[in-house]
Inverse folding.
């Protein structure tokens, strides 16, 4: 313990003047905290919340996903795409599908962070999703880093319907069980600000557009 | 029939007489570099443009907050629970700080405790120097404002860029933020446009989208090449050793992604026990602050990147600042440390709405600022702040962790009197007043004299437009109703 630490901690201990072992923290009453229940129609609620968060949502099945993706990318005029190299993206071999459709597709293992700044679009899977708030949950990993879902202008997220959790309560329970890794971010829309005269502007330091494919 | 609204259009703003508060200004120096609260707030209240900007901004957030809170099954009980969780963390702060340190170190991070602002600045500068870092990107941190970190870093030759759009604008305009959550509520888009035009050497354009894109392009380049990232913290989770930082813009996420050294600076009171507690705290924090159900990005991080990862910091430091908080912990104001810096009390406060944040003279403004600024920096220097309240209680109703702000404001006022900080004239006036109130005969006599005098001044209209000298303050900006012809006692006797 450094001298500063013991100074501060001693001050804290003296301030509290606590005797005896610590009491347990207050119990979290779900009846006042939970907003979405496991019995609710999670994909529908999730899709609705994502739309109201100004993310573009499309539901499809895994066979159609590549085709729908290509259609979206053509409409957005994207030429090259960065992809994560794990999860459903690898399972459905999306990188190869996109290459065959004429897009430059680069997986994260072949890119540096600096190179990613020149990409307009990235495709990632998600660790989880929350229906209550319409949030995508991404975890830092070797497969997608922290930057894929952050740096390019357009972020495409692939959510499998079974990944959708009802409420934040369930997400934090899952993270407590499985660990957070080095970083987790909940993404609840494209980046925005209202700093200038409370005028909403979409697209600040994170992606300007978020497209969510819900795969059933 | 007297007019319904005595404040309506009494005097056009341009013609208003200069406000000369007699009693309180007696010993006041002429305008100095740091105006007193009375001077600053008077000036702010007379600035119609500022009032309109602040009022517009806070009302939007306040109305949004009211609507969102209704979504919760029982927002009152949830606020009580959140308050209990924070209070529990404070009551056991030594235990949770120990747990936090162990957890962060298990994740490969470093934890530092510092006592004062200066210690914090020196430590962070040393971390940067040891790692050979020169390009700093900062995301929103109230504590870094508290310790004036950016200024000192620049002085020592580091390139420091505030990356939150509002804070960036504050930085390049050499201004100070005026609201905890929305730093530039006091600036119009035209002034931002003028600022950007000069700074970026581009044509003037007051479209907020254009201005935001300009800032985005500029700051994107800074993110790309930064080597030192700094964030604040909304919560520190003791159980897992993670920082929770919420934002809408993405600059905090950038700060934890590109630079090789990451420092999170937070007050020691930010600790919560468990990850599960975040479900309660987050549902309330964001609704209370801006009326969203969740911020665009809710980030949980702590510790350096894992070996297999390509981005994220190689070094992580958590700097925990005491800065007077342990003293507040020891005393009767411990509850004020529950504050999660949501800004809901600012948005609810009728005083803040009129004068904005700068008038409070310190980084923390509004009702919570009126409490913690004197507590952290000395009651003598900031004794005007606890007085700047009508004790309406709107802040208490808005607070997501149920800090009883009005009660603490009254207690601070009592402390001011007990420490004899309130000046000889005020003590003398109150002594006379107490003397007059203690005697029924004196009370009746003075009351009758006062009644006759005031009714004479009202000249049968029922309203007094001007009181002389000492009392001028009461009628400077509104008419005062004249007392009735008969007192209630007399009416009662006559019935």
């Amino acid at each position: 313990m450094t001298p500063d630490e013991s100074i501060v901690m001693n001050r804290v201990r003296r301030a509290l003047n606590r005797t005896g072992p610590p009491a347990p923290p207050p119990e979290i009453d779900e009846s006042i905290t939970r907003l979405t229940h496991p019995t609710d129609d999670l994909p529908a609620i999730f899709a609705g919340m994502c739309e109201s968060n100004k993310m573009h949502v499309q539901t499809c099945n895994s066979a159609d996903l590549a085709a729908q993706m290509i259609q979206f990318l053509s409409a957005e005029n994207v030429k090259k795409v960065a992809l994560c190299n794990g999860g459903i993206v690898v399972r459905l071999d999306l990188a190869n599908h996109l290459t065959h459709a004429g897009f430059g597709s680069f997986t994260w293992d072949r890119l540096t962070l600096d190179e990613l700044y020149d990409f307009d679009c990235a495709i990632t899977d998600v660790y989880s999703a929350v229906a209550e708030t319409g949030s995508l949950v991404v975890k830092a990993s070797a497969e997608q880093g922290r930057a894929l879902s952050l740096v390019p202008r357009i972020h495409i997220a692939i959510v499998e319907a079974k990944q959708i959790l009802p409420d934040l309560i369930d997400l934090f329970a899952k993270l407590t069980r499985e660990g957070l890794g080095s970083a987790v971010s909940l993404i609840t829309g494209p980046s925005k600000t209202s700093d200038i005269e409370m005028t909403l502007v979409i697209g600040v330091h994170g992606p300007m557009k978020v497209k969510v494919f819900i795969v059933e | 029939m007297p007019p319904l609204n005595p404040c309506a259009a009494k005097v056009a703003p341009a013609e208003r007489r200069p406000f000369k508060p007699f009693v309180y200004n007696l010993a006041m120096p002429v305008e100095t570099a740091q105006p007193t609260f009375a001077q600053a707030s008077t000036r702010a209240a007379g600035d119609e443009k500022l009032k309109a900007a602040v009022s517009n901004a806070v009302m939007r957030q306040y109305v949004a907050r009211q609507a969102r809170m209704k979504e919760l099954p029982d927002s009152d009980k949830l606020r009580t629970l959140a308050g209990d969780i924070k209070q529990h963390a404070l009551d056991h702060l030594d235990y949770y700080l120990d747990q936090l340190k162990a957890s962060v170190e298990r994740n490969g991070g470093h934890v530092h405790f510092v006592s004062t602002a200066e210690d914090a600045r020196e430590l962070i500068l040393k971390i940067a120097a040891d790692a050979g870092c020169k390009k700093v990107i900062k995301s929103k941190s109230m504590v870094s404002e508290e310790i004036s970190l950016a200024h000192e870093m620049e002085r020592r030759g580091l390139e420091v860029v505030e990356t939150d759009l509002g804070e960036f604008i504050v930085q390049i305009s050499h201004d100070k933020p005026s609201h905890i959550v929305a730093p530039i509520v006091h600036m119009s888009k035209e002034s931002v446009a003028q600022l950007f035009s000069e700074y970026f050497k581009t044509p003037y354009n007051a479209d907020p989208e254009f201005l935001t894109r300009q800032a985005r392009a500029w700051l994107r380049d800074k993110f790309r090449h930064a080597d030192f990232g700094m964030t604040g913290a909304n919560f520190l989770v003791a159980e897992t050793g993670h920082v929770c930082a919420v934002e809408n813009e993405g600059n905090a996420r950038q700060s934890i992604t590109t630079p090789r050294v990451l420092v999170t600076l937070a007050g020691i009171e930010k600790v919560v026990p468990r990850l599960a507690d975040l479900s309660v705290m987050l549902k309330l924090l964001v609704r209370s602050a801006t009326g969203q159900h969740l911020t665009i990005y809710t980030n949980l991080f702590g510790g350096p990147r894992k070996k297999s990862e390509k981005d994220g910091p190689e070094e992580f430091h958590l700097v925990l600042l005491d800065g007077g908080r342990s003293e507040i912990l020891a005393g009767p104001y411990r509850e004020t440390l529950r504050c999660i810096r949501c800004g809901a009390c600012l948005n609810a406060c009728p005083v803040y709405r009129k004068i904005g944040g700068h008038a409070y003279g310190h980084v923390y403004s509004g009702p919570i600022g009126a409490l913690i600024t004197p507590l952290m920096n000395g009651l003598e220097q900031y004794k005007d702040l606890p007085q700047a309240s009508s004790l309406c209680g709107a802040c208490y109703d808005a607070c997501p962790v149920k800090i009883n702000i009005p009660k603490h404001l009254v207690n601070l006022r009592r402390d001011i009197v007990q420490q004899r900080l309130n000046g000889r004239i005020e003590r003398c006036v109150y002594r006379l007043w107490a003397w007059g109130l203690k005697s029924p005969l004196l009370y009746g006599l003075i009351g009758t004299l006062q009644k006759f005098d005031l009714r004479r001044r009202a000249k049968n209209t029922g309203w007094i437009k001007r009181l002389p000298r000492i009392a001028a303050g009461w009628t400077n900006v509104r008419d005062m109703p004249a007392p009735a012809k008969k007192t209630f006692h007399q009416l009662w006797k006559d019935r």
Chain A touches chain B through 75 residues (CB under 8 Å). The radius of gyration of chain A is 21 Å.
